[in-house]
Amino acid sequence: MQGYTPGFQPTEADAIKINTNENPYPPSPKVFEALANLDSEALRRYPPVRGDAFRRTAAKVHGIDPEMIVCGNGGDELLTILMRCCCDEKRPLAYPIPSYSLYPVLAEIQKAPTIEIPWGENYSIPKELYQTDAALTILCNPNAPTGTLVSMDEVRQLAQAVEGVLMIDEAYVDFSDHNCLPLVKEFDNVLILRSMSKGYSLAGMRFGYAMGSRRIAEAMFKVKDSYNVNMATQAAAAAALSDQVYFRRIINKIITERERLITALREIGFVVPPSQTNFVLAQIKEPAARQVYEKLIQRHIYVRYFEKEGLDDKLRITVGAPLQTDALLGALREIINGLLQD
Fold it and tell me: For residue 166, what are the β-bridge partners?
């Protein structure tokens, strides 16, 4: 099988790392307070099996029942757990493409068939996705790597149509105009996936959570590992989520920088659609995107390049801090001018 290829992790001290959609700002100060307050007993004992402290915090923030929440060692583990619940040789997975490239890898591990359907016009939900009879349908919304967002009304129509579970992967929703959380109260087959890596700056801690009906949550509890999230991570995640004032301030900074990045890239000559995430997908015809990508690496600037049809003329660029944006834009101007003159 073909395994998932994660983004490159540079080791240079001067590296500008804008390839894996990490938050350029530190976590809330409350995270460090929570970690400092952990005592030896918290580390000596196994952690709470279901992450009850975090579930109570998340229930308060999102206005749902704690029993509707499942904690995981990152969003990827929750995807794995859900695949165990839903998919096997006779129960396929369906999703629109392009999307998160881990989905087919996890399906293959479960020996589950995959139904891949190209996005509709303007990245609308393709009509064929309504009719797959898949056991599990995944909609990445906002989508990676395109940065596009489907309206909640359109997602609601999909939830009404599918027979199996509909998982809405909202790993990037912190940076978008709206989310689909209200749908978990309308449909018992809808599950929302959230990440603490992007908006809350906890990529290094590995924490994600899912929200859905008690029926789905209980099924996921049956097949998850017993102590899947360590005590330090549970404490950090609860502290981060509780500090919504800090969170909103950081999100607003990233959105502002995103719009500046989009405007500047367009001025350089890239075609950049609007984004609802903390990254942009920038298309360039000349010089070739791969050439630009390789020249950036020589300068220790790391963005993401996908050698796949439909994506091989594009660069996915994480929204960094202003100084990182300035360095990237300066390098791009020099690289593109140099390549065009060769």
Answer: 137, 190
Q: How confident is the model at residue 172, as a pLDDT?
A: 98
Tell me the DSSP string of 184-244.
HHH-TTEEEEEESSSSSS-TTT--EEEEE-HHHHHHHHHHS-TT-S-HHHHHHHHHHHH-H
Find, among 339, 313, 300, 286, the residue nearest to 18 by Cα: 300
pLDDT band, residue 8 (cuts 50/70/90): confident
What is 16-25+245-341's CATH topology?
A: Aspartate Aminotransferase, domain 1 (3.90.1150)
Assign 9 a pLDDT band (cuts: 50, 70, 90). confident
Contact 71, 255 (CB under 8 A): no
How high is the mean pLDDT of the chain?
96
DSSP state of 174: G
The third-level CATH classification (topology) of the domain covering 29-242 is Aspartate Aminotransferase; domain 2 (3.40.640)
Count CA atoms within 13 Å of residue 64 on its CB side: 22
Inter-residue contact 202 to 237 (CB < 8 Å): yes
How many other C-beta atoms can be found within 10 angstroms of the C-beta atom of residue 282?
Answer: 25
**Strand 69-72 vs strand 208-212: parallel, antiparallel, or unpaired?**
antiparallel
Q: Where are the alpha helices (DSSP H) in 10-151?
A: 29-36, 40-44, 52-62, 75-86, 102-109
* Residue whose tokens read 């995107």: 289
Full-model pTM: 0.95
DSSP lists the bridge partners of residue 116 as 95
pLDDT of 5: 78
Tokens at residue 73, please?
Answer: 């060692």
Cβ neighbours around 222 below 10 Å, total: 9
List, by residue range, all CATH 3.90.1150.10 domains of the chain: 16-25+245-341
Q: Which amino acid makes up residue 105?
A: V
Report the C-alpha gap between 307 and 311 in whole angstroms. Answer: 7
